[in-house]
Amino acid sequence: MQSPVVVERFIKVQNKDNGIINVACLGGGPGSDVLGVLDYFLKAGFEGKLNIHLFDKMDKWGRCWETLETAIKAELSEDRVTVSFHDFDVTADDKNNPDVENADIITMHYFMEEVYSERDNPNVKACFHYIIQKAKPGALLLYSGMFWYQVIGWVHQLLTPNCKPLTPGTEVTGRWIGPDPAIQVDLKQEVDLKLFDDIRDKLENYMYYSDDRREVSQRYKGRVIYRLYQK
Description:
The chain is 37% helix and 20% strand. The chain is α/β, with parallel strands linked by helices and 231 residues long. It has one domain (4-184, 224-230): Rossmann fold (3-Layer(aba) Sandwich), CATH 3.40.50.150.
């Protein structure tokens, strides 16, 4: 399932005069963001040049990146699609300044949840300040992840001083107030998104506080929350 708001904005990016789309995937891990971007724009019939930059820890994902790069080159013989991999760590002051200046789209898929516990780290604060300041005017920032309202609120606070929310309901940061922009994922097809099998029994036995139980329930049902902002 695709978000109409995201699709509408991505179409505008596709129709740029120069025919080039630059995408930065922050915390892209083994390459799921890269594959998602490729799948979307190729199916959308984009015929221009697509440059994708994945930023994450080289020592953790380097071997996966090599495999992914080989597979992409074998599948796409044309040079209009390039994928680059960059060593990136929000907590390291020598690796936390990703080159996002030319990015038309910046993705943060299940990334902000990973760094939330480090949000008060000075290097992490400096990293996000750098990203937001360096992003060019008009750049789209797409956050997607779990129904974790503390993280959603944190992302909103980080971005709204400099970025405009584009998704309906994005301005709401309180719990369970108004509609939350989300898409439904078919867990039968997306096995890797079954994130909470280990606590299913506790969830069903109401061993969580009300708000926590609702948040986890949304995740277990395969609902992925998203927010789209524009610099």
